[in-house]
Amino acid sequence: MTKAERALETRERILTAACEVIADIGFEHVSMRKVAEHAGVSKALLHYHFDTREKLFAEAMTHSFAKTGTDTGSEDDSLPAADVLARIVRSMLPTDAELRQDWKLWQELWVRALRDAAARVLAVDLYDQLHAWVAGVVERGIASGEFTDCDVAEVGTLVLALCDGLGNRLMLEDPRIDLATAQSTIWRAIAPALGIAPVFPEVAPEVSPAV
User: Looking at domain 69-194, does it have CATH number 1.10.3720.10?
Assistant: First the structure.
């Protein structure tokens, strides 16, 4: 392994550890020492890669966000657009332990964004990327004839808003909402605009490597 590869591996380990610690105890209680211990690196090495908690938090959020699209197959043009969109919806809900951790990070970001300008800019940027991700699949479905022509931006906004609202209730373990209900509610809301059946597709999760 080259020096550059070792540095990249260390950085990845630190970011993974930071995501886990922040999700576990909240950003306000996180110290660089705790992250270093969890990552199995020295505090000095941690500071070499990230000189402040704020920079570490921003990088951890971006790292977590980048993994969100790992299992959606969004780069596979052979998949029907509806199947890809269903996988995106599922990936934006707390459907498993890893995604619940991601949701905890998002909730930490929302709280910080209310008081911190840099966190607010980061949150808006990540939402822009999510919106573009959804819009790209909708546009592909329209181009292929799978979806009817519609207001792509409006559909994207609706998907994100519903995922946020229902995802929060899933995180709260609201007894009125389970995963199947959340998915079907989102699908029924967007189906008329897309001209598709209002039944959430039964699509097996993609297990390909991260893009």
Answer: no
